Amino acid sequence: MDEESLNDENKKEIDQGLVNGIQLTLEKIEEEISRVKLELAKSGLVSGGGINLHGRLKDLKTEEDEEGKTIEGVFDGQQMIGPDGKRYSIPANYISKSKLVEGDILKLRILGDGTFVYKQIGPVDRERKVGKLVKDDEENFGVMIGNRIFRVILAAVTYFHGAEGDEVVILVPKDIDSKWAAIENIIKASSSF
After folding, report:
1. In a domain, 44, yes or no
2. Mean pLDDT, 10 residues at a time, over the chain (193 residues)?
3. Domain coverage including residue 107
4. Count of structural domains, the chain
């Protein structure tokens, strides 16, 4: 080999090493940007304000008969709030399976034996968004879209076998600022076709 060929080979090795170094640096910068966005979102400076649920409660009713009690309420992202302001727990698997979003109107039937039966009676308009699944310091999952993080129910993440970094399709109330989102689907980050 002549000296010129060796120089070309050395340049290629140096160039590839430089490219690899730049790629690693960019990955670290992207991780740091994600971490900072997560911290900002956790601080409340850029998160959603949540829906004004009290305005939606005024037209809801409560009825009682010999078979039990029926209460209408508004879903706040985790629970149903009744017209009297009382909170009613909802099984996480029902929330995730029904893809409830903040502002949905629910009817709760409490039977004589204490059984709770929920039914969604007034879904709000929804829109789809795509983001990245992230986890905070307390191991809570959220979906980051831009500088916003939407909170999500853990049952939905586990149902779809979600992991930090996965791409997530969520449902949020249309034209309303919300804190919570329903997971519609998760696209694994490690998926290859």
Report:
1. no
2. 60 73 81 65 50 66 90 94 91 95 95 94 96 91 93 95 96 92 92 51
3. 53-122
4. 1
Between CA 46 and CA 164 the distance in angstroms is 20
Q: Are 57 and 74 in contact (CB under 8 A)?
A: yes
Angstrom distance (rounded) from CA 160 to CA 98:
14
Residues 75, 102 contacting (CB under 8 angstroms):
yes
Q: Which pTM value belongs to this model?
A: 0.71
| Residue where the block lists tokens 């698997």 | 93
Given a contact cutoff of 8 angstroms between Cβ atoms, the answer to whether 156 and 183 are in contact is: yes
Structure tokens at 1: 């080999």
Beta bridge partners of 116: 110
**Partners of residue 107 on adjacent β-strands:** 72, 119
